[in-house]
DNA sequence: TAATGTGAAGACATTCACAGCG
DNA sequence: CGCTGTGAATGTCTTCACATTA
């Protein structure tokens, strides 16, 4: 999907290959990329179940709501531990805590947003992030016309201040919403500033930057995927 | 990914199974979902090459730019035809036309946008769509406070007018940017109005609606994926 | 009894490697 | 000669099916 894709992303694992005597990479079982994506879906749905006051859910119940097989759900959760109770299912509250811990959203992540055009300003106002433990902590642009503009997340600062602010505020993630031509360059600046991961909205594939993880979302491509699926169906 | 689905999406193919005598589904070779996603990436990069005035590109060149192997590129394009020239590579202009035809963006698709909150209004102004042959033709909301507001794509209309306008303007696609709780209901209204495909931005998995293709994009989930990858790395 | 967890089988996707072509 | 197109080999992911458990 949807990505693919709908969003593209970096590799996650580090296949242990033949060398089982390797000491360094702390032999954790690799997580299949599709399973990683589904983990977020589980969490989101479990949270809605909890809001409804439910206590347990079966792999079958999760699967039906998320359009997956029950076996898939069990395999996915099984990658991280034994969370279920035979004859009962999964305890919702407990599973939510476990998944948050796996994803890392048992704590808050600070995010810098670079590029305050149409999309950037929408992202700055989007409420879906806070709930998920992401706090937009600083806004940047290079266009003098938007500098100083004020948002709930603060004022727009010049790109030159990026490294300083990232360090001061201990920002770990960045969202990149600049024009395609500038994306690679700005991404590299973000990396140099100490950002560990970049969510890229620019319509361009970023070349690998050592030490940085990137995930891309391209809105126009998602519409194309929709068109393609329809076109393939009616042929 | 995604990757799946980072973005998630419906099934594309229709596995031919054993029954090779089937008459109905017009035996076209199924397209692997990941390959379908990459097709859009090829197109986008080819267009940028064309803008630079280049004439040909090898599978190796495409692969390097898009972080894929050359073999992968050849396999993918090979799913749709023989577009390359041994010893030369692919002719950029020609390949662009072919891929547009496959995706269906050799013509214009009309799009209705439902839900004019933060995200909806950003989508209404986003320039990345027109270039890709998607024309936002009508805007809808149910909140009286935003009705009548004016955007480049027109004025915001009440949701009750959806079916009428979809038919009048021959709209085929919809973008859904309403709150999660309303997503399924509004998606079903869109289907009834005659829309063939929905790009869903609401943070909820839509249940299957017969006759409609859906692709989902969840911004908060993409940030979670970034966090997860970083968390998995440093464990 | 109603559910999980998990090897084994099967389906699917990627990479290899090389024949063939302009 | 350089590069494509494509079967065959490999690798990854999903589904099956059932022993196991509370």
Notes on the structure:
The structure is a homodimer of 235-residue chains. In chain A, strands 1-11-10-9-5-6-8-7 form an 8-stranded mixed beta sheet, with helices on both faces. By secondary structure, the first copy, chain A, is an alpha/beta fold. Chain A is built from 8 helices and 11 strands. Chain A has helices spanning 33-51, 59-66, 70-78, 92-103, 118-125, 162-169, 180-192, 219-233, and strands spanning 8-9, 56-57, 84-85, 89-91, 109-114, 134-141, 150-151, 154-158, 173-176, 197-200, 213-216. Residues 1-26 of chain A have low confidence and may be disordered. Chain A is globular, with a radius of gyration of 20 Å. Chain A binds a DNA duplex (22 and 22 nucleotides) through helix 3 and strand 3.
Write the layout of secondary structure elements.
Two copies of one chain form a homodimer.
Chain A: E1 8-9, H1 33-51, E2 56-57, H2 59-66, H3 70-78, E3 84-85, E4 89-91, H4 92-103, E5 109-114, H5 118-125, E6 134-141, E7 150-151, E8 154-158, H6 162-169, E9 173-176, H7 180-192, E10 197-200, E11 213-216, H8 219-233
The structure holds a DNA duplex (22 and 22 nucleotides).
């Amino acid at each position: 999907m949807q990505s693919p894709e709908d969003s593209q992303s970096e590799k996650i694992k580090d296949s242990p290959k033949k060398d089982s005597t390797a000491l360094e990479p702390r032999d954790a079982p690799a997580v299949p990329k599709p399973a990683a994506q589904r983990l977020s879906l589980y969490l989101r749905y479990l949270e809605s179940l909890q809001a409804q006051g439910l206590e347990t859910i079966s792999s079958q119940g999760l699967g039906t709501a998320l359009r997956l097989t029950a076996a898939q759900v069990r395999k996915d959760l099984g990658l991280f531990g034994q969370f279920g109770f035979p004859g009962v299912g999964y305890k919702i509250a407990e599973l939510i805590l476990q998944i948050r811990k796996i994803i890392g959203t048992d704590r808050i992540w600070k995010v810098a947003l670079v590029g305050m055009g149409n999309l950037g300003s929408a992202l700055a106002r989007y409420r879906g992030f806070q709930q998920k433990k992401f706090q937009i902590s600083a806004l940047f642009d290079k266009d003098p016309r938007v500098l100083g503009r004020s948002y709930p997340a603060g004022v727009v600062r010049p790109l030159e201040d990026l490294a300083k602010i990232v360090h001061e505020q201990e920002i770990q993630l960045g969202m990149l919403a600049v024009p395609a031509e500038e994306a690679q360059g700005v991404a590299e600046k973000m990396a140099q500033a100490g950002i560990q991961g970049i969510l890229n909205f620019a319509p361009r594939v970023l070349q690998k930057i050592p030490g940085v993880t990137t995930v891309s979302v391209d809105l126009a491509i998602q519409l194309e995927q929709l068109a393609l699926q329809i076109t393939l169906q009616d042929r």
